[in-house]
Specification:
Layout (H helix, E strand, L loop, with lengths): L2 E3 L4 H17 L4 E2 L4 E6 L2 E6 H15 L4 E3 L5 E3 H8 L3 H9 L6 E3 L2 E5 H28 L5
Antiparallel strand pairs: 1-5, 2-3, 3-4, 6-8, 7-8
Helix pairs in contact: 1-2, 3-4
């Protein structure tokens, strides 16, 4: 199931904020079960929700309360090159070069390239790790050279 909300209305934003506030204030009343799920009582009915799903719900409400668009996609979803480029904040031609050089795996559907969302997320994580490593190197070098920051 893939769900995308393009624009959050002011009314939805207010409902999300109210729900988030209620969720946060009542969180101490939620009982954590031995299997890691959470028990929530709604209209005298107990519902078990996986802890991760509860965390995602909080994130969704938080983003909606801020008026940010929200999308929920399976990591197994196939996305287009344009969607992948938008996700990575790069141009589509640059993304195609990443695909063709093997940096990111892809599938061909006819003449179209499709990319698994999980592969884009993995690429993002690799890039972030590399940036952190390079930043640590530069910081260490700046300290060694006594550059004053």
């Amino acid at each position: 199931m893939d769900a995308i909300m393009k624009k959050i209305s002011k009314h939805d934003q207010q409902i999300a904020l109210s729900s988030l506030d209620t969720l946060r204030s009542k969180v101490h009343k939620i009982k954590r079960r031995k299997d890691g799920s959470l028990n929530i009582r709604i209209n005298n009915t107990d519902i078990a929700i996986p802890g991760l799903a509860f965390s995602l719900l909080s994130d969704i409400l938080s983003n909606m309360a801020e008026g940010k668009p929200v999308s929920v996609l399976s990591v197994e979803s196939q996305i287009t090159t344009q969607e992948a480029a938008d996700r990575l904040h790069v141009s589509r031609p640059f993304l195609v070069k990443l695909l063709e050089t093997g940096e990111i795996p892809f599938l061909k559907v006819g003449s179209h390239r499709r990319i698994l969302l999980k592969d884009i997320l993995e690429y993002e994580q690799r890039q972030q790790a590399m940036r952190k490593k390079q930043l640590a190197f530069l910081s260490k070098q700046a300290q060694k050279l006594n550059l004053g920051y």
